[in-house]
Amino acid sequence: METTTLGRTGLKVTRTGFGALPIQRVDFETARTILRAAYEGGITFFDTARGYSDSEEKLGYALADVRDEITIATKASGAKDRASLLAGLEVSLSKLNTDHVDLLQLHNVFPLPDPEDPESLYAGLLEAQRRGMTRFIGLTNHRIAVAVEAARSGLYDTIQFPLSAISADKDLELVEVCREHNLGLIAMKALCGGLLTNARMAFAALRCYDNVVPIWGIQRLSELEEFLALDANPPVLDEEMLALIEREKAELAGDFCRGCGYCLPCPVDIPIPMAARMSFLLRRSPSERWLSPEWQEQMGRIDDCLECRQCADRCPYGLDTPNLLKKMLADYRAFVPAA
Prior knowledge:
With 339 residues, this protein is of the alpha/beta class.
């Protein structure tokens, strides 16, 4: 597999990374089978997080015996200060069955922590590095201004940010900012939260950037096999593919939910990350699943919206989430078969 250097870390990693969030949805043995197949297929970069339920534990269960042959990145999910970051990292290391991670990332922080505060999250990163609990430090974010600020600060080794075939030009500027500052750039949401269903197109679009490492969220062997095949024979971003990207951009133009989940929890249990994308899900994947009685009930919860706007306040993309949900519900009800 092709490799690249993850910025100034010097870490040589495969240009196809494994995003381990989805393996929380499968059992341990299934996760082990997928992770071993990824390793045996040549993937060396695995990204997980403390907040992905049992993802870290499954990764440790599957790959502890080849720990020195892979690069593990995790995230300090839920940490608020130095002490909670270090305590959470202790748990992560135990779950991962290792004494260190290669990369520890702050998880979607806003604003950036004060590097001068001895009790800040950043102080926790530095202490973890001094104690040998992590080799390098980074940051994930969904806000382009924060990601660029972090990249230019000189305080981090890597940045993780949503990048895909339909990313806006202002988001793609981060590619050159990271190149200029010799930072590793990890692309999450490379399939735009599942809205992009053409993996070949998505792969080709990001393979154009030699300093970007996409992490593909994988929970099925068939998905892994598809990405291994794409890496073995990378598709060319030709005129036909570029035209397809433009059509996707036109269809997904404007305000749409990326499914990051930072809007949650909802006080009336609306499944916002899925409900706010329902119009696209109905049209871009088999609709039967979304029209089930279970999903009809869940979508119906939008009628119970309290207009508290907590979801909108938390949204890193500045979406008017309550209004978006109402639009999705109206469209959804047009799809529901008449009783």
